[in-house]
Amino acid sequence: MATKYLPSDLSTIFDMSGKTAVVFGGAGGLGNAIARGLAAFGANVVISSRGEEKLKEGVKAIEKDAKGGKITYKAADAGKVEEIEAVKDFAVKEFGSVEILVCSQGFNRKHDIVEFDMADWDAMFETNVTSVFNCMRIFGTYMKKEAKYGKICIVTSVRDQIATFPGGGNAGYCMTKGALTAMLKQGATELAPEVTVNGIGPTVTLTPMMESIVPKEAQEKSIPADHPLGRMAKPEDIIGAAVYLCSDASCYHTGQVLYPDGGLLCKG
Ligand SMILES: NC(=O)c1ccc[n+]([C@@H]2O[C@H](COP(=O)([O-])OP(=O)(O)OC[C@H]3O[C@@H](n4cnc5c(N)ncnc54)[C@H](OP(=O)(O)O)[C@@H]3O)[C@@H](O)[C@H]2O)c1
Q1: Does the model's pTM come out above 0.85?
Q2: Which of 65, 78, 182, 262 fits a disulfide with 131 by CB distance 3.0 to 4.6 angstroms?
Q3: Mind listing the pLDDT tens digit for each residue in 132-156?
Q4: In sequence order, which ranges of 41-116 are alpha helices (DSSP H)?
Q5: Atom of ligand 1 nearest to the CA of 79
Q6: What is the phi/psi pair of residue 7, to 5°?
Q7: What is the CATH number of the domain that holds 17?
C-alpha cells in the first residue's frame, strides 16, 4: 500500500531497498545519473532505451554506486506501446514488482518559429510527450491497481516555465516540456492516493550530449554567469531531487516539479 506517513525511523526515509525502479532514458546523461542515485539508496534498477550497447555501459556505471540492488537493462523504443509493456513485464518477471518509474527520454531539435520543421515538431512530441504519457499510463495503471504503490518521476525542464532569450529555436521543445508539466499534475490527481507523480526540471546541464553542442566559452562563462549559483549544472546535480521524489521521503508530495536550476528561475 502507498506510504501515507513518513516511517517512524527517520534514517530510512530515503531507503529504496527491496524496491524496483524502471528508468527510461537510463543510459543517457540525466537518466543514468538518476539511476545511479536510486541504486545508491538500495533500489533494483532496470534501465531502458533503444541502443543496446549504451545500455550495457549504463549498467556498468550504475553498478559502481549500487548498494545491494540488482542492475539490469531492457532495450525498448518508448515510442511503441507494446515495447513499454514489454519493459514492465520484464521488470515484474525479474523482480516481482515495480514501484518506481522515471521518464528521462527526450531530445531537442531547434528551429526558429518562422521556419519550423514540422516533421521535427511531430518527432519531439512523439518522444518527449506521447511516449512519456504512455509510460505514465501503463506503469501508473499497474502501480495503482496491482502494486498499490508507486512513485513516478518525469524529467521536464526549466523550459516548461521560461523561454530562451537571447537565442531562440526552442518553441517546440518548450511546448513539449510545458505539456509534460501539465500532464504530471493530472496524473497526480488521477493516480492518487496509491501513486505520486512529480517532475524534475533541470536547467542546461553538461551531459555528454551537451558537452559536444554547447561551445566551451558558454560552458565556462555565459552559462555560469546566467545562474545565481555561478556554475554550469552537472548530471549529478539532479540526483538529490530524484532520490527525494522516488523515495518515501516525498510521501506527501505530488503533482509538483522540483527545479535543480542553480537559481535560474529566481531571476524572473
Ligand atoms: N541536458 C540538459 O541540458 C537538459 C536540461 C533539461 C531537461 N533535459 C531533459 O532531460 C532528459 C534527458 O536528457 P539528457 O541530456 O540526459 O539526454 P541524453 O543523454 O540524450 O538522454 C536521452 C535518453 O533518451 C533515450 N531515448 C530517446 N528517444 C527514445 C525512445 N524513443 N525510446 C526510448 N528511449 C529513448 C536515449 O537513448 P536512445 O537514443 O539509445 O534510445 C537516451 O538514453 C530529456 O527529456 C531532456 O529533454 C535535459
Answers
A1: yes
A2: 78
A3: 999 999 999 999 999 999 999 999 9
A4: 52-63, 81-95
A5: 31
A6: -60, 150
A7: 3.40.50.720
